[in-house]
Amino acid sequence: MEINRKNKLLIGLWIVALVLIGKLFYIQIIDKGYKEDASNNSMVYVDIYPPRGIIYDRNGEVLVGNTVCYDILVTPRDVKQFDTLALATALDTTVDFLRSRMKYYREYRSRIGYRTVTLLKQVPPSTYIKFAEQEYRFPGFRAQARSIREYPFNAGGNLLGYISEVDANYISKHPEYEAGDYVGRTGLEAAMEQQLKGEKGYHIFLRDARNRVQSAYAEGKEDKPAVPGKDIVSTIDAHLQQYGQRLMEGKVGSVVAIEPSTGEILAMVSSPGIDVDVLSDIGKHYAEISANPRKPMFNRTVMASYPPGSVFKLVNGLIGLQEGVLVPEDSYPCHGGYYYTATRKLGCHAHTSPLRFRDAIATSCNGYFCYVFKDILDNKKYSSTTEAFDVWRDYVTSFGFGNSLGSDFPSELGGNIPTSNYYNKIYGKNRWRFQTVISLSIGQGEIGATPLQIANLAAIMANRGYYIPPHIVKDSEGVKIDPKYHERVYTKVDTSHFETAVEGMYMAVNGGSTAAGTAYNASIPGLDVCGKTGTAQNPHGKDNSVFICFAPKDNPKIAVAAYVENAGFGATWALPVASLMLEKYLNGEISEKRKPMEERMLTTKFF
Amino acid sequence: MTPSRQSYHHLDRGLKQTVDWWLIILYLAIALIGCVSIYASIHSSDPSSIFDLNTRSGKQILWLGISLVVDLVILFAINPRIWEVVSSMGYILVLILLVVVIFVSKDVKGSHSWFELGPIKFQPAEVSKITTSLMLAGIMSRPNFKFNSQAGLLSVALVLGLPMLAILGESETGSALVYVGFVFVLYREGLSGWWLALIGLAILLFIFTLVFNWKVTALVLVGICLIYYLYFLKHTRKEARNARRAVLLRVLAVIAGGLMLIFATDFIFNNVLQDHQRGRIEVLLGLKEDPSGVGYNVRQSMIAIGSGGFAGKGFLSGTQTTYGFVPEQSTDFIFCTIGEEWGFLGCIFLLLLYVALISRIVSDADKCREAFTRIYGYCLASCLFMHLFINIGMTIGLMPVIGIPLPMLSYGGSSLLAFSIFIFIFIALYRQENKYF
C-alpha cells in the first residue's frame, strides 16, 4: 500500500476505531463491575423476612410467638415537601425528630443516593393504620411489615433470650447476616438460632433511575420465597417455669428442675431475671437492665459458680463408698464438730452421735464427712495426698462438676473443682494435706458449681448413678437434637452404692423432726420426697441457702435444685422453693397444709 | 433511436455505474439501526408501537422518510454543479443565521443555538457544516489557490474560523469541536504535517496542565522539543547550517507558543469554558469524583454499555436503558442502547459500518479528478469521523460529555436531515464525476 496522505488518514481512522474497540472490550468483556452495577441499578431486591420459628413448651403452650409490627422506611430522594407536623402526628413521633432525620438525610444525600433507609423501627399496628391512611400525602415514605416476637407466657427472659438487629461487629464475624436481620442473642433464641431463623427470601422488582418500582422482574418467577424458621419444642414446662419465677420473686438465686429419666430441663429460673415484656424491645431497656446491680442479664442457672455446700456431702460419701474407705455401717462420732488439729474444729450442729452413713446424710453431719474425706485423701492405696486428691477429683468430675455439662443452653459455664496443681502452687508440692483442704469435705472452699450442675446432682441421685446431659430442646418434627441428649453418662461410683445415699435423702425429709432430719419440711404426703439441704458459707455476706430434692423415691419424675443467695440456712428458703416446685409439678396444686409455706415464699421479698 | 429512449438508456446505465450504492446501503443501514435503537431507548415497561407518531421512534421514521425524499431530489433533480455555485451565498446566509440565533433563541441548557418556528426546531450549526464544507471546497478548488500563500491560508482560516467562533458564541462547544476535524482536509490538501502535530501537542499540553500543573507540563514540553531537536541533529549533516538554524528557531517558537498555551490554559479553563463543561472535563480527567452529579451520565452510560457484555442483553431487554438510567438516551447517548442490548458484537458491527462509510467516502473522494468533489468528500468524512469519535468516546468515558449526536443514529429530525443532505450532495457530486470522466 502506498503511504500517501489519504492512507495515513485512513490508518489514523483505524487506530481511533481500534482505541474505541479496545475500550469497549475492556468495559464489556474484561471489567465485570459494570454488570453488577447494572443489576444493582435496575433490580431492587426487596427482602421477604421469614417468620421466626415458634417456641413451644413441652405441653404445646406457645412460649414465644410472632406478631406483626411495622418499620417506616423513607427514600430521601423521593421525598417532596410535606407537612412535618401531620407526619409526626401520624407516626406518634415529634416534629423535632423528623426534622433532625431529614436534615441528616440531606447532609448525607450523596452517600444515601437512591437507597431506602429506615426511619422508625417497630411501629405498632395502631400507629401504622394512622400512617397508612395518609401515606399518599408523604411521597417517599412507606411502611414495611415485620414480624416481631411475642410472649404469651411469662416464662423468663433469661431462658428464652432475646433477639436483636445485627450490628456491624456481628456482621463482620457472621458474614451470612445482613444489616436489618435479627439474631438470637441469648437463651433459647441463641441456642436454636440456626433452626429458628429460617431463610430470607426476596422479591425482585425493576426500578427506574428515580428508584420508582416499575414492575416485578420476570413476573416474579425469579423471586425467592422466604422459608419460615422451624418451630422448636422446648423441654420447659411453662406453668412450672412461671411458678418458679413467682416463688423466686424478690430473691436472688436460681431454681432448676430436671426430669431425671430424660435429662430434660423442666424449669430454669434465674432471679432477678428479665421480664418478657422487655424482651421484644430490649434495645430500649438495655441501659436500665445493665445498670441493675443484681445483674438480671446474668443467667445464674448456668453461669454462676457457687459453693454447693452440704449437698456435696453426697458426692464425698459416694466416693468414700466406692473407694472402700467407707462402709455404710461404719459410725463416726461427732460432738459438735470435727477437730482437725488439737485446737481447730470444723463445727457441726446438734444431733445424735455416733451415726451411720444414712443418718449422716439425713442429719448432714459435718464431722462425719470430715472423717470420710480424710479417709479418701489419706488412703494408703495412694502414695501421696496429691495422688489421692487427683483420684478424688476424677470422681467428682464424673458427677458433672468442674466442666460444663454440655447442655444445649448457650453460655453454660463449668463451675470450678480445684486441681492438685492448684494447691501445689499455693502451698508447694506435697506441702499440703487433708487438713489444708478440709472445707472441700462439706462442699465449701475453692469448689464452685452452677445451679444446673447441682440440679444435675439431684438427677444423678434420682437415677442412682447416672445422668443424661441436661437440655432444653426436645426432639420434634423437623428438629432432631444431638443423640448425646439421649445417652446415659455414668459416674465413676458404682450404682449399687447410691441406694444408701438415697435412703439418707429420704430420711432427711421423711425421718420426722425428731430424727433430726434436716429437710422434714419438704415432705409431701404420698410423694416420697428425697432431699438434701445445704448451707453454703458466703464470703460476701449471709450464707447461701441450697436444697436439692427429687420425687417420688422410686421412679422419680422430677429433680429440683434451688439456690437462694444470702438467705441463710438451706432449710428456710431453698427448701420451700424446691419442694413447692416439686409438689406443683407432680400434683398440679399445693396442698392445704402447705399453703402457708407457699404464701410465705410468694410474699417474702428480699429486695 | 428516439431522444427519449436515448436519455432513458443513459439514466439506466448511469444509475448502476455512477452511483456508489455502498454509500447508500451503509447510510440506510445506519439510519434504520437508528430508528430501531431509538425505539429500544424509549421502550419502557409500557411499550407502544415503533411507528407510533407520538413517540420518538415514530417521529424519527417520519423524518427518515422526509430525508429519503430530499435525498432523491438531491440525487436526481438538482444539477450537482449548483452546489459549487451557491456555496458562497449559502455560507454567508448560514453564517448570518449562526449569529442571529444567539440573540433570538431561548436558553436550552446554557446554549443558544435553536430556531423555533412553531413545531419545527432547527439548529443552524447542523447546516453550517455543509455550507462550510462547500465553501472550503469552493475556495480551495480554485486553480489559483495556494496553501503557501498568505492569502490562501488567511481565506481558509476565515472560512473555518468565522462559523466556529459563532458556534462557540452559541455555547455549542461540541459542534465547534467538530470543526477541528477540518484540519484533516487541509492536511490531505497539502498542509504541513507539523500542524497536525502541533494541534496534537496543544491538546496534550492542555490536558497536562489541568491534570498536573504548569511546571510539569512546561517540563514535558521542553523535553519533547529537546528530544526532537537532538534527533534532528543526529540525522542531519553538520554542514546544513541553515537548516539547523531554521529548526532551532522552529523549536524555540514551539516552546514559546506552548508556554503561552500552558499559561493561557488556566485562563481558558476558568474563564472561557462554562461551569458544566469545566465539570465534565474535570470528571473525565479524574480531577473530580461525583457520580451523581456531572459524572452521573458517563457512569450510567458506561454501566449500560459494560453490562451488555459480549452479546448483549437482547433487543428491548436492556435494564439500564429501559428504566431510564441514562439521560439523553435517544439522542446523544443512543450508543448505550446498542452497547447494552447488542453487546460487544453489536458495538463492533456498528463501528465497522461507520468506519466502512467513512473510508468509502475517503476512497471515493480521493479518486476524484474534480478538486471540489474531493475536498468536499474529505470534509464530509472528517465531520463524520469527529462526530463518531467524540460521541462514542463520550459514552465510554474517553471524552468529556460533549453533546453532539451520532450521525444518522441519534434521535433528531434536523440532525438526520442535515447529515442526509451532507452525504447525498457528495453522492450526487461523485455520480457526476463518474458520469463525465
How are the SSEs ordered, and which strands pair?
The complex is a heterodimer of chains A (607) and B (437).
Chain A: H1 5-30, H2 33-42, E1 43-48, E2 55-56, E3 62-74, H3 84-90, H4 95-107, H5 109-112, E4 117-123, H6 125-134, E5 141-150, H7 157-160, E6 163-165, H8 168-173, E7 182-184, H9 187-191, H10 193-196, E8 201-207, E9 213-216, E10 232-233, H11 238-248, E11 253-259, E12 264-271, H12 276-279, H13 282-291, H14 300-303, H15 313-323, E13 337-339, E14 345-347, H16 357-363, H17 366-377, H18 385-398, H19 420-427, H20 451-463, E15 466-467, E16 489-490, H21 498-510, E17 530-536, E18 544-551, E19 558-564, H22 574-587, H23 595-603
Parallel strand pairs in A: 2-10
Antiparallel strand pairs in A: 1-8, 2-3, 3-4, 3-5, 6-7, 8-9, 11-12, 11-19, 13-14, 15-16, 17-18, 18-19
Helix pairs in contact in A: 3-4, 11-22, 15-17, 16-21
Chain B: H1 3-18, H2 21-42, H3 56-77, H4 81-104, E1 115-117, E2 120-122, H5 124-140, H6 150-169, H7 173-178, H8 182-188, H9 193-211, H10 214-234, H11 241-272, H12 275-284, H13 295-308, H14 319-322, H15 334-367, H16 371-395, H17 413-436
Antiparallel strand pairs in B: 1-2
Helix pairs in contact in B: 1-17, 2-3, 2-15, 2-17, 3-17, 4-5, 4-6, 5-6, 5-16, 5-17, 8-16, 9-10, 9-11, 10-11, 13-15, 15-16, 16-17
